[in-house]
Amino acid sequence: MTCHEPCILLIVVVILCTIIYVLNFFTENERPVSLQQVLVFATGAEKEPPLGFPVQPTIAFNHDELRRGEVKYPTANTCGLNLTLPVVSSFDEFIHAMEDGIIQAPQFGFQ
Predict the structure, then answer these.
(1) Which domain holds residue 37?
(2) Which terminus has fewer CB within 10 Å in the chain: N or C?
């Protein structure tokens, strides 16, 4: 193991813990956005295909808005299965950006 591997492992653990926390937040609380809506927003699919997705889904984090002091919304490339999440200064801002971005998404018949 090189000296960089523990740092990378720690970063991966922190990201996974954050994702688990967010998933628990959406499933354990009455929220206007369901996990299924997050899946549709990110992939265009209402459920995981029986043989899995054709490519590995990815998550990226957009730090530009935080640097500029703007609140942006999540973006998704449903063909490439890429979800980009905004980096904001608080969890409440993150939830607000996620819910507003997904609810206002005009594609896939959201109403």
Answers:
(1) 5-109
(2) C
Task: Compute the distance between CA of residue 111 and CA of residue 109 in angstroms, rounded to an integer.
Answer: 6
Counting the structural domains of the chain, the total is 1
Nearest to 108 by CA among 14, 42, 18, 62: 42
Assign 3-state DSSP to the chain and report helix, strand, coil percentages, each to 5. 50, 10, 40
Task: State pTM to two decimals.
Answer: 0.66
> What CA–CA distance (Å, rounded) separates 62 from 108?
24
Q: What integer pLDDT is reported at residue 66 of this predicted model?
A: 63
Cα(67)–Cα(20) distance, rounded to whole angstroms?
26
Q: Count CA atoms closer than 13 A to 10's CA, side-chain side.
A: 5
- Can you give the CATH number for the domain in which 71 is found? 3.30.2410
